[in-house]
Amino acid sequence: MTDTDTTPWWQGATIYQIYPRSFADSNGDGIGDLNGITAHLDHVASLGVDAVWLSPFFTSPMKDFGYDVSDYRDVDPIFGTLADFDALIARAHALGLKIVIDQVYSHTSDEHPWFAASRASRSGDKADWYVWADAKPDGSPPSNWQSVFGGPAWTWDARRQQYYLHNFLKEQPQLNGHNPAVQDELIATAKFWLDRGVDGFRLDAINFAMHDPALRDNPPAPATNRPRTRSFDFQLKQFNQSHADIVGFIERIRALLDDYGARFTVAEIGGDDSDREMKLFTAGNTRLNSAYGFNFLYADRLTPDLVADAVGNWPDTPGIGWPSWAFENHDAPRAVSRWTSPEHAPGFARMKMLLLACLRGNIFLYQGEELGLPQVDIAFEDLLDPEAIANWPLTLSRDGVRTPMPWVGAAPDLGFGHDKPWLPFGETHRALAVDVAEADAGSLLHWTRTLIAARKRHPALRLGSLAIVHSDDALITFERTGGDETLLCVFNLGDDARAWPEALATDGTVLFEAGGADVRVMPPLSGLVLRR
Hints:
Number of helices: 14
Domain Glycosyl hydrolase family 13 catalytic: 17-402
CATH superfamily of the largest domain: Glycosidases
CATH topology of the largest domain: TIM Barrel
GO molecular function, one term: alpha-amylase activity
Strand content: 15-25%
InterPro entries: GH, GH13_cat_dom, Glyco_hydro_b, O16G_dom_2
GO biological process, one term: oligosaccharide catabolic process
Keywords: Glycosidase, Hydrolase
């Protein structure tokens, strides 16, 4: 699609993710909050992004830092109030920003009143709102399913004399998405937030929303070259997730949002079968608008094959959905720390941002990515991430990407609002703080603004088709075509300089270059966009 007059606002959009605990602290308790976000929305708007995605701010005991919800329709006191949320929405809309919020429909907190009622009785009105099952004759769990965070996905509950399912922490019991009453309540929750003015939802772990009611055992996974750090990695997840009936629930969600006009839905879909599910959940015009791919988030290297495989799975073909891409988020270590060495990080970050801006689909930026922040090394005694603690030292901590946003480099609290926040500061972040970057015309911050503006200005980048032209062990080259323009995008992801491929024309206008690239030679970690 290239007609910008009829294109939905979200198609080709740039969306900025905010992790509320770590963005800005307005009340001095060491934890970021909604008012802190509102006070810094001018920075976000200055980037030129279209929307903000807020990670969970709902009432929660915070065992998984908000992804264990105990009240879907209220704000946790550490983040503020519903009135604070309404003020955030008003300010964002005044700045031209859309607001997308997380919705966690696969599980709740074990402190949710629904779960308290469900575990209290096998015959109550919420008895079947969660996934309960009897023990096997020997007392072992009903199936061999394993939790994402390690160990069996079943916990025994003495109240009901049954096991309950949890695909994540035991404090995150699995909702029974097959139950129409559960679906009705979740749809009502979505309506609650739409009525408050939100512009869309990111659906967390939506492929976990329903399970195989027969509770069949998962088969073992074939051996791979990747290390298995969790018991979860030893299985093919055929029966504890990805049930075919999820599509019907998705269509109910889409129908609701269509009643509200220009709203947006994006699914978080990870796992071995994610490509098929992303396409299934976004096919046609009655399902979700987009799906959030994990192709880059957990990759330990940025390679031409990785890029070609990811974008090649989403051709500009009728009936195939619209992808979304991210190189970083709150669950994945910072890309500059995964993909390059500290000495090469500044140049790599510029090339990486140019590549992201050139991809077909929506693009997501995680807070601080516009500054080139590296991962923070969190000592074991300071870890709060339950997954990292359980799998230490084999899992890179999610805490290291959730550290406070650096606003003022010279300030003791980096301008965050408290000098001893919930997670330690990254001392290497001082030199990359927002005020430092603002003062440097050549900073990644200014480069990011330039590239986001270019995506809006060039139909080929925002909405055009993408075709791979050349790929080898270092170079990836593709064409973006849209409107009346064709752009050739060439990147050297390798560590050595490469000659410009002989098969590629050199005529045209260079729109952007990173790392000293030109039409004669591509230095290592460089990129170039040529308008034909």
